Amino acid sequence: MKDISIIIPIYNEENNIHLLHESLTSVVSKISNSYELIFINDGSRDNSLSMVKALAANDQHVYYINFSRNFGHQIAVSAGLDFCTGNAVAIIDADLQDPPELIQEMYQKMKEGFEVVYAKRKSRDGENFIKKFTAKIFYRILARITSVEIPVDTGDFRIMDRKIVDVLKHMPEQQKYLRGQIPWIGFRQTFVEYDRKERHAGETGYTYRKMMRFAIDGITSFSTAPLKFATASGFVVSFISFIWILYALYSRFIIKDYVQGWTSIMIAVLFLGGVQLICIGIIGEYISRMSANIRNRPLYVVQDTNIQS
Question: In terms of CATH, what superfamily is 4-207+298-305?
Answer without folding.
Answer: Spore Coat Polysaccharide Biosynthesis Protein SpsA; Chain A (3.90.550.10)
